[in-house]
Design goal:
elongated, mainly alpha, about 90 residues
């Protein structure tokens, strides 16, 4: 049961998305798409941060909602890091 869960989670992580193609040459169009996606994700990350802070300040915070917002924020952080790695050229010194 537990092994099946991890296998499904691993497969979901490997789903194909044209924005995240691993290619040798980054075209200007691909880089613009990545920059736009990066800006959108960063804005969503900031919005989630503000929502989490507001929820912490409430007299009786909904802990389940707080946990879900934090999990989403971590997922966004991982995607942001991945896109930044795609935009930044990998130079071997």
């Amino acid at each position: 049961m537990r092994e099946q869960y991890f296998t499904q989670a691993f497969r979901r992580g490997l789903q194909y998305h044209p924005l995240f193609q691993l290619t040798c040459i980054m075209t200007d169009d691909n880089e613009r798409m990545l920059q736009a996606e990066l800006a959108r994700l960063q804005q969503e990350h900031r919005d989630l941060d503000a929502a989490i802070d507001a929820l912490h300040q409430s007299p009786a915070p909904d802990l389940l909602r707080l946990q879900r917002l934090k999990k989403r924020k971590l997922q966004l952080r991982d995607r942001i890091a991945f896109i930044e790695d795609q935009i930044t050229p990998d130079i071997i010194a």
